[in-house]
Amino acid sequence: MSDLDVIDPATGRVVGRVPSMTADDVTKAVDLARRAQPAWAALGVDGRHEVLRRVRREIVSRRAELRDVLVAESGKPWEDAQADLLLTLSMMAHWESNAAAACADESLSTRGVWGLGRRAAATYHPHGVVGAIGPWNFPVALTFGDAVAALHAGNTVVLKPSEVTPLSTRWVAEVFAEQARALDAPDHVLSCVTGDGATGAALVAEVDMVQFTGSVRTGRVIAHACIDRSIPCSLELGGKDPWIVLADADLDRVAAAATHYGLFNGGQVCMSAERIYVEDAVHDAFVERLAARVSTLRTVAGSGPGTTDVAPMIAPGQVDVVTAHIRDALDKGARAVTGGLPADVVHPAPTVLVDVDHTMACMTEETFGPTIPVMRVHDVDQAVALANDSAFGLTASVWTRDLARGRAIARRINAGTVSVNDAQLHVGIGHLPMGGVGASGTGARGGMDGIRKFQQRRVVVTNRSPLGRELSWLPYGRTVSAALDRAVGLLYGR
Ligand code: NAD
Questions:
Q1: I need a labelling partner for 286 at 20 to 30 A (CA). Which of 52, 230, 390, 487 fits?
Q2: Which class for 227: exposed (0-12), middle (13-18), buried (19 or more C-beta within 10 A)?
Q3: For 201-245, how does the pLDDT look when each residue is reduced to its tens digit (9 = 90+)?
Q4: Partners of 445 in beta bridges
Q5: What confidence score (pLDDT) does residue 1 get?
Q6: pLDDT single digits (tens) 381-399
Q7: Percent with pLDDT over 70 in the chain
Q8: Which residue has a Cα nearest atom 3 of ligand 1?
Q9: Within 10 Å of residue 190's Cβ, how many Cβ atoms?
Q10: Do residues 233 and 250 share a domain?
Q11: Where's the active site on this chain (predicted)?
Q12: Atom 39 of ligand 1, residue of closest alpha carbon
């Protein structure tokens, strides 16, 4: 087993080292998780809740330590690390309040002729061992946070964080193990394997269900592997989130929102402001306000709250995508009203592009960086058509003072979540199922869907008939068959 260096992209310093785990290491981790699972399930909803509550409290009391690890491995601003922490804690709090209802038996209707004399209930069971594989942009929330519901549902979990940012996820797994031990809960309920894609692939080959958050490319590879093994998977993939700004929108607020949601975490967010369509009448006024805000942001490395604004490019190679998208746009006639081609490979300047169109990669492919392309449109129909001209369907936003019109437009956009005068923060509302359509994935975090995916549903049907035999049973008789045929007409022929 060799080691992987973890590098702070803001400084280039090695800040940690983790083992690059082989398929054998992964098999061992999954075996231990599999052996722990029955005892974890046997703790029941309340017992599991007690452990998870204790872990949450410990994370809160040691949050400065976790934030430092996040900042060190990603180079991001203190506030962006805090966002990862907050999202994780909100997911934990949500499932503590809502998992019990999802684990209870559910009575099902048997109405209809075939249900006469019958009762049915659904019972919910853990899959066994869940493998949770995550990306580098929010390493705690999108690896551990995405697996909290799986733990409440009685699964044990093996986390596989991104090789770029493994330290924070491993830190959480260590805290979980300590706290579980303090309560005499089983060992190996939550563990963490480290390594690159090969380690992730080895995990997919062993577990009973895969929770994946990451790129479309990897998601498809994982989906194929899961189909081959007949195991379920949930895929939270990329996006090319469109915003539509109508002429009646509050332009100052939209410009402030676009600056934040487009550049928060250096634009390395799946639900970003990846492309903005603005009605002709307000396009210039909006661009002026947006550029004025974007051009004042700080990109230098910070140290502590309030010391910098825009995160560096966290993953190696990310700046190449940003550069390629800006270069392609400029070559095809776009203009950068602020920023431009990156001069710094770690801290590219936040860039607002105008005169863009759908021949340009910046409008059709996920950039995942600090660029905000703004396109002028004649009217809302053109904006909706362009918003839907994409294989992705993660999130979208509509900005208008007319809320009813905004909601009507939202219904026309092909995305898992559409916000009116808002963006992104729906992910913190645990009751909302947040997931993508099209290339953006299948499955959701939040809502009932966010825990059902970690459960196997079994339906138990009980027949309470006092009759010695059902009419339709063998042996067949002329009279009964004729009567049943007449019933077909009565039941289904009307
Ligand atoms: P990635 O797909 O490159 O890697 C994600 C994880 O998959 C990493 O842990 C990686 O080691 C692992 N992996 C790679 N190959 C694998 C394989 N063959 N089998 C199993 N695991 C494998 O993604 P990334 O670059 O880390 O993250 C950025 C992407 O994540 C962006 O596309 C972004 O939109 C997406 N994302 C989506 C959401 C969402 O909620 N929809 C949230 C955050 C990020």
A1: 390
A2: exposed
A3: 999 999 999 999 999 999 999 999 999 999 999 999 999 999 999
A4: 434
A5: 66
A6: 999 999 999 999 999 999 9
A7: 100
A8: 215
A9: 29
A10: no
A11: 236
A12: 236
Instruction: Kindly state whether residue 73 falls inside one of the protein's structural domains.
Output: yes
**SS3 readout for 181-199:** HHCCCCCCCEEECCCCHHH
Say whether both 126 and 214 belong to one domain: yes
Q: In the numeric block, which tokens belong to residue 77?
A: 């601003």
Catalytic residues: 236
Asked whether the whole model's pTM tops 0.90, one would answer: yes
Length of the chain: 494
**Domain assignment of residue 69, given as a range:** 3-237+445-456
The rounded Å distance from CA 215 to ligand 1 centre is 4
CATH code of 178's domain: 3.40.605.10
How remote is the CA of residue 235 from the centroid of ligand 1, in Å? Answer: 10
Q: What pLDDT digit, counting tens, does each position of 171-188 carry?
A: 999 999 999 999 999 999
- 411-424 pLDDT, tens digit per residue, is 999 999 999 999 99
3-state secondary structure 156-183: EEEEECCCCCCHHHHHHHHHHHHHHHHC
Q: Which atom of ligand 1 has the smallest separation from the CA of 222?
A: 19
Structure-block tokens of residue 56? 């949450």
Alpha helices in 372-477 (DSSP H): 380-387, 403-410, 449-452
| Mutational test site, ligand 1, from 26, 158, 211, 215, max ligand atoms within 8 Å of CB | 215
Residues 6+ apart with CB under 8 A from 353: 326, 329, 334, 335, 336, 337, 362, 371, 372, 373, 374
Q: Running DSSP on this structure, what letter comes out for residue 425?
A: G
Phi, psi of 371 (to 5 degrees): -120, 145
Report the distance separating Cα 212 and Cα 269, nearest Å: 16
